[in-house]
Amino acid sequence: MSLLDGWWDDFFFGLLTVLQVFAVALAIAVALGLLGASAKLSNSRLLRALAQVYTVVFRGAPELLVLLLFYFGMALTLTWFVQLFDPSVKFIDLPPFWAGSIAIGLIVGAYMTETFRGAFLGVDRGHIEAARALSLNPYQVFWYVRVPQMWRLALPNFGNHMLSIMKDTALISIIGLEEILFVAKMANSVVHRPFLLYVTVAMIYLAMTTVITLVVGQLEVRANRHLRGTR
């Protein structure tokens, strides 16, 4: 491992970048998943159609292709929009961090939409009717009755989506974000030990996904603790 001396700081900061991308993409995916699931279960035909288009497009397109299209497409769109107000602007480069985080959030959010939709459908209708009978408004019914029960049902698949987000962060190196895979590529151009470097990256990702798996396992135990006495 002495070959990596001088690169550990770069790997550390690359890891911090991965964690930041993971946090932003997870927040976006959860928000889009809840919005998409709510739209698919709404009475509005337009909202259901929009949510269906969203899930079909982002679940059907290759993730790397979505990332590239979003990165270059958003840069062109931003440039066009700014030029409407300032023609002197030549080109606006979208930061790889935000392009990658948003793209991953959009992709995984499409999968979360279906996970949350199925979990919402699994909530006991009797509990919802009881909440309405207690004069809870729709907002209170959603957040205090439906979401807590949906969360318990969605947790197993939600953990898989978290793992997908973590692994997808490796894709962002292709658009120039200096995360751990990007650092490994740079280090390889100097030390010429690709196997050692990529195994190091693999071990880092394995450590992070193991932590996620353990955390989700504890969340499942906590979410299902009220069921222990009924078994």
From TrEMBL:
Keywords, ordered alphabetically: Cell inner membrane, Cell membrane, Membrane, Transmembrane, Transmembrane helix, Transport
Topological relation to the membrane, as annotated: Multi-pass membrane protein
Membership in a protein family: Belongs to the binding-protein-dependent transport system permease family. HisMQ subfamily.
Classification via Gene3D superfamilies: MetI-like
Xref: Pfam families: BPD_transp_1 (PF00528)
Name this protein carries in UniProt: ABC transporter permease subunit
PROSITE patterns: ABC_TM1
Chief place where the protein resides: membrane
CDD domains membership: TM_PBP2 (cd06261)
Entries under NCBIfam families matching the protein: HEQRo_perm_3TM
Subcellular localization, as worded in the UniProt entry: Cell inner membrane; Cell membrane
Residues in ABC transmembrane type-1 domain copies: 15-216
TM annotation in the entry: 12-35, 56-82, 94-112, 195-217
InterPro entries associated with the record: AA_ABC_transptr_permease_3TM, ABC_transp_permease_HisMQ, MetI-like, MetI-like_sf
